[in-house]
Amino acid sequence: TQAPVNVTVTGAAGQIGYALLFRIASGQLLGPDTPVRLRLLEIPQAVKAAEGTALELEDGAFPLLAGTDIFDDAKQAFSGANVALLVGARPRTKGMERGDLLEANGGIFKPQGEAINAGAADDIKVLVVGNPANTNALIAQAHAPDVPADRFTAMTRLDHNRALAQLSKKLGVPVSEIKKLAIWGNHSATQYPDIFHAEVAGKNAAEAVNDEAWLSDTFIPTVAKRGAAIIEARGASSAASAASAAIDHVYTWVNGTPEGDWTSAAVVSDGSYGVPEGLISSFPVTARDGKYEIVQGLEINEFSRTRIDASVQELIEERDAVKKLGLI
Length: 328
Ligand code: NAX
Prior knowledge:
By secondary structure, the chain is α/β, with parallel strands linked by helices. The chain is 43% helix and 19% strand.
């Protein structure tokens, strides 16, 4: 039988962690034949709560769960990690400027990048969920010079799934019939969900919608501001849907995208589509042999160009701000 894969999860005692860990333990992250060992990282004050979750994981009697270890030290938590889900982050609190937010998160993602560099397994794959996800991923990546840069990714799969759901409702087709949707740019309100290359039951989605006003005034803002709508309705931010998207992101990374389709992930730019090299930006991506690759050669119309550029501009500003703070 296969040796367990080490999966490190930060922010394990948080609400996304609570929804995520049980799905990992049940085999949904890597597949039904792969045993996993969980390595949970929390801040000291939250270790007790993580221990409580570990008791419940034990009570799940998951056949694929080889064990759960809890740490408050990043070096230990990432030691031997094959997959790392960086969920814990410093949220923006009232009155906090963007610079303060970036600095507080730099204090988390810099040492975590260093710990990954020092002790993760050679095949390490990193997904950053904690916001601001793209720039947190950039900070971690910058402090892991010995790890190939393409192992660092940030999550826009939730945005992708939200876009699939909205388009499915609009056209009255199941999500399974929609292919080649894409999220571009930053996981923020500037993100651009693109349906111009999408196909619905074999037909072009933008043509099927045939309503540019719906696109710009309803679809794009609904997807981009869905996080706020969830907070408004639930009184708490998206958790189970975020955990589900994190599962999707890693599962696809490891197991590949289906022929004739792609997905969305924030990956290190190679300069494609005018996105400056090195930025961690969302693109349409395929996955093959354990690698995410940016889909090449798509024609970008003017509607899309403006929106992609605006979101990438925000990423450039975040990168410049963390550079100024000495975080990268
Ligand atoms: P919670 O506040 O419930 O949990 C965060 C947990 O992280 C806490 O238990 C905290 O103790 C822990 N933590 C803080 N600093 C840590 C550190 N240095 N090392 C280890 N653990 C640490 O937040 P939750 O709702 O679980 O959300 C987690 C993050 O996901 C937030 O940053 C949130 O903004 C982000 N999200 C990202 C999404 C995406 O699509 N990329 C969507 C959902 C979510 O909003």
